[in-house]
Give the backbone structure.
Amino acid sequence: MTKRATQQSPLILRNPNTIAGDLAGRTKERLKIMHYVLSRIRAHKRWRQTALELGRYSDHQLDDIGIYRFEIDEIARRQFNL
């Protein structure tokens, strides 16, 4: 008998509960990654909306709230940790 014929698939030798646990762990990890990616997309959308809204203000309105026009991007990014 050759060495190849005696080897079995790792899935055949493993306990079904272990396989299910591994799949559940991978699924949980994928969900965490998806949650992180979606939260970053939402933060980016909010940053963009904030930057656009502040950009619509006149220089006088920005001065009233203590912001210079060149600071808009930095302030919006800092607000959403980008």
Q: What stands out?
A: Helices lie at 3-6, 10-13, 16-56, 59-64, 72-79. The mean pLDDT is 81.
